[in-house]
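Lab notebook, bench 4. We co-purified these components, and the gel suggests they stay together. Before we commit to crystallization screens, I want a quick structural picture of the whole thing.
Request: model the full complex, all chains together.
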Amino acid sequence: MSNQGPKTLFDKIWSEHLVGQREDGTSLLYIDRHLVHEVTSPQAFEGLKISNRPVHRPEATIAVADHNVPTINRQNIEDPQSKIQVETLAKNTKEHGIQYFDLMDQRQGIVHIIGPEQGITQPGMTIVCGDSHTSTHGAFGALAFGIGTSEVEHVLATQTIVQNPAKNMRISVNGDLPFGVNSKDLILFIIGKIGTAGGTGHVIEYAGSSIMGLSMEGRMTICNMSIEAGARAGLISPDQTTFNYIQGRPYAPSADHWDQALEYWSSLPSDNDANYDHEIVIDSSEIDPMVTWGTSPEDVVSVKGFVPNPSSAQTENKKKSIERSLEYMGLKPGTKITDIKLDKIFIGSCTNGRIEDLRKVASIVKDKKIASHVQAMIVPGSGLVKKQAEEEGIDIILKDAGFEWREAGCSMCLGMNPDQLKPGERCASTSNRNFEGRQGRGGRTHLMSPELAAASAITGNISDIRDFT
Amino acid sequence: MDKFNSLKGIAAPLPIVNIDTDMIIPKQFLKTIKRTGLGVSLFYEMRYDNDGNLIKDFVLNTSPFDQSKILVAGDNFGCGSSREHAPWSLKDFGIKCVISTSFADIFYNNCFQNGILPIVVSPGQLDQLMMAATNQIEFSIDLPEQTVKAGNHSINFEIEEYRKDRLLQGLDDIGITLGYQDKISAYEEDKKNKKPWLFKDN
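Here is the predicted assembly.
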């Protein structure tokens, strides 16, 4: 990568954070902010202890427990292992002087919700976390990616990471989004188009009028699922929408540094004639509300569509893969998507657990009741999202409709806490992964937008928001 | 870190595409605060039934594959969650090498942190190796020479030089980086002046 010539947003952030080359030819990249949670950090802190190494810059790290936490009773974690894990995080952060939002702190929540919410996430930063959905923060024009526990230890010890540059991919989505289509549909459509390995080795920059027209929360949903397309990170150039969102948040630059930060942030968007290794252009008018039918996020179809037939697969491997998915999902080829009957509805996660998501759901289910055969739960992404929703009366609307109103956490997105599907149960979920067993052994997940999940809760079948009155 | 040089043995065939890290090690095993002891839970839902009994026809439950040190798997192995518990569980089971047509980035990185060699081959080569694995032909992997041999097949694979060196020497990555402490400090001093808002440390 040369220093001359037009640069992408990724190139700019990369060169600003390059500490130097190591003798082995790899690059040392400086990390501005490190987010830590209870599941992928204990072994990293243990590693530091064994090697007797300090944390290089404790104040650049923020910690929160989110994966294991109960969403009903906050006072008591029943699972002894989960309890130990959460307590271990509290102990480790205290020992090393790292800021920790504990379970009773209103700022507690899913790590990728609270970073932006607190203003920790800012344009031009490098941000890492031992969690693949760290890509979420790319919505602010920050280079943010998930790392393994050994790398968590490396960042704690050195505030740097060993990397080689990624390739640049740009996905432009142009045009006004059709009625009923939103950011979740957009990203599901993209994953369906490029596949779960389509972004491997790349950082995906999302551009075009459909993307830039989204709110920050919509942009976060897009970048969040970049990992489901295999990408190292997702990025969106920062603009006025970004700056407005950050201003005034607790960790935003203070008034005396604001103008200086803003000037730098304004220099970040990709240059007009920057070069991309791969370009994809999508017309948003071709996108419908999307739903997954299988066990990979690339198994997507329009809500107006049908479960695919393995015999129509192009290759023998693809045919086998569809057959395996259909068997797991308990679906027959050719079934109309809207004929699929549901047992559970899960609204939440780092993909769709923000206030705008909750508002949309509330507007759809207001004065209605969920179908008698479904159980529906809504898990706000953070304590502050929950508080905001309660101030707006959203909790009352949802509870009146029959939803369970929970405390903040990752919850049934991955079911590390008691919120899980039972074998054979079918769930409309606003989360990000429909893998076998993800939400509970034998559980069947259909990924979709909060709007579709809300409509589906009322009818009890997967439903098209456009037909819903 | 464990070194990797060469390896000989039977390879277990797992002809499934998009094997994600949730499949490799499900969520309930992520509650540990240790790196060890996860091998028994590797591929838990494919290996055990609802009552915790071994599913007899799953490849890693059948002899001689239950002793495999090598896994041959479908495209895009290790996608999804960043959990390093995935390579930890493979290693604890005894698997030191995974062969596929492609790996997800985070999983690929995580392998090298744990002395596991991920090898990328072409789709045609994977078909040959899958067949050889199924037929219980002995595999021979040589990292210095960058070759996989199985029966009549001899395949050269690519690997970045620094990753190869790290596996061959079992290097401590953090120790290497700490050798650049002066550069890191110089970088921080420079940025404190140029981007003070990043150092308004909480």
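Chain A has a mean pLDDT of 97. Worth comparing against the SEC data before the next meeting. The longest helix of chain A spans residues 80-96.
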